[in-house]
């Protein structure tokens, strides 16, 4: 039998233990991502920049900064973001407006998605995802009547700014974060009977009215049309997976990286992994992502208060949506949207914000009162 003193010490140790599984998975995925970014980019980097290590050098620098920030935030009490949620959201909104300011915003391929500060470029929409989770968690922590109108105004303003960039993939993720967190806050179910049809209709209209978005939808419905035009990207992805077979062609042996596959280092990096490591490698990677998401969900469910639950749930939803949308597009069950794969795709802004989110989740895990989700589904319903 344990003494009362021993039990208290055990509870304290459990309370202050971060989730090591998440930490190992995140760092492992990021390092594996650096390897695959080099595999996917070295030919293109040498051809265009004369330096095959260009992309891997940048990504590794961001990796070091991101891991340092993640570790630092894992020691910051998560309740701090309750007080800072409003200024953080205002800062994110300012950056969303700034992308349209000449001399600050960077326009590439007709899109305003980046800000150039001289010493660094970053994507404000990535910051907005985490800022929105902070704010909604703080706002929804207290029950409030008749907040549907304010909710719709905030949703329309933020998602509208992202659509204007234009970036429909990120807008979809932000919209889903809004709706799911609103549901988790305990909002009346009848409101979702109104929200979901309206949001779906607007999304379909945006997809149909924009020529390049409409071409993506028609390509998704009929991948055989225009094989050298609108369907080219999707067909090259499928060729990558087909070439990989069961075991893959081998690390470094990809043929698609020879400038056949568009966005090979960013949105389509999973296709390069499928080509080089085959079905076995991609299946193992998907299992790792599943374990990662389940650990995030576990932390959210066992958070000590409603703010922690909403914050942890928002971070879980963020990573789940990013992963599902990217992988779904890669295997042609969803249209291509330009959403990066967490920790694997090239991009400093995305990696940095993702690591920050994990740092916050690790701090919540320090206060988690259980080592696993448990077998009772009613636990989650009680949290809502």
Short description:
67% of the residues lie in helices and 3% in strands. The chain has 14 helices and three strands.
Mind explaining what this structure looks like?
- With 384 residues, the protein is mainly alpha-helical.
- The protein has one domain (17-383).
- It is 67% helix and 3% strand.
- The chain is built from 14 helices and three strands.
- It has helices spanning 4-15, 20-49, 54-73, 80-98, 124-139, 148-163, 168-184, 190-209, 211-221, 232-244, 269-301, 306-330, 348-366, 378-383; strands at residues 105-108, 111-116, 121-122.
- The chain has a three-stranded antiparallel sheet.
- A hairpin with a 4-residue loop joins strand 2 and strand 3 (121-122).
- Helix 3 (54-73) packs parallel to helix 13 (348-366) and helix 5 (124-139) packs parallel to helix 13.
- The longest helix has 33 residues, at 269-301.
- It is globular.
- The model is unreliable at 1-14 and 371-379 (pLDDT under 50).
Low-confidence stretches: 1-14, 371-379
Number of helices: 14
From the spread of the alpha carbons, the general shape counts as globular
Strand order of the largest sheet: 1-2-3
Strand proportion, as a percent range, falls in under 5%
Mean pLDDT: 83
Radius of gyration using CA atoms only: 21 Å
């Amino acid at each position: 039998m344990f003494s009362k003193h021993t039990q208290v010490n055990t509870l304290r140790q459990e309370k202050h233990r971060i989730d090591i599984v998440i930490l190992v998975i995140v760092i492992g995925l990021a390092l594996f991502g650096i390897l695959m970014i080099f595999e996917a980019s070295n030919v293109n980097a040498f051809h265009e920049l004369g330096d095959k290590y260009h992309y891997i050098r940048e990504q590794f620098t961001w990796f070091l900064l991101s891991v340092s920030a993640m570790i630092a935030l894992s020691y910051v009490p998560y309740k701090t973001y309750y007080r800072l949620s409003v200024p953080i959201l205002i800062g994110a909104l300012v950056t969303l407006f700034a992308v349209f300011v000449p001399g600050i915003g960077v326009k590439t391929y007709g899109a305003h998605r980046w800000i150039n500060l001289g010493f660094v470029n970053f994507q404000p929409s990535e910051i907005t995802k985490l800022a929105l989770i902070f704010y909604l968690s703080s706002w929804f922590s207290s029950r409030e009547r008749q907040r549907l109108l304010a909710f719709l105004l905030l949703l329309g303003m933020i998602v509208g700014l992202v659509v204007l960039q234009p970036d429909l993939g990120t807008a979809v993720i932000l919209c889903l974060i809004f709706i799911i967190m609103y549901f988790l806050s305990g909002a009346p179910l009848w409101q979702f009977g109104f929200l979901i049809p309206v949001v779906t209709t607007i999304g379909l209209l945006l997809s149909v009215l924009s020529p390049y978005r409409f071409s993506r939808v028609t390509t998704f419905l009929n991948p055989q049309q225009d094989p050298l035009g609108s369907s080219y990207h999707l067909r090259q992805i499928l060729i990558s997976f087909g070439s990989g077979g069961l075991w893959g062609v081998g690390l470094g042996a990809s043929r698609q990286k020879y400038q056949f596959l568009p966005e090979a280092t960013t949105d389509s990096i999973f296709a390069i992994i499928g080509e080089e490591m085959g079905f076995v490698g991609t299946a193992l990677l998907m299992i790792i992502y599943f374990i990662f998401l389940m650990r995030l969900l576990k932390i959210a469910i066992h958070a000590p208060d409603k703010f922690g639950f909403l914050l942890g749930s928002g971070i879980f939803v963020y990573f789940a949506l990013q992963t599902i949308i990217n992988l779904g597009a890669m295997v042609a069950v969803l249209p291509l949207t330009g959403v990066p794969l967490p920790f694997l795709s090239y991009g400093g802004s995305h990696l940095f914000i993702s690591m920050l989110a994990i740092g916050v989740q690790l701090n919540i895990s320090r206060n988690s009162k259980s080592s696993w989700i448990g077998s009772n589904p009613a636990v989650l319903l009680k949290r809502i």
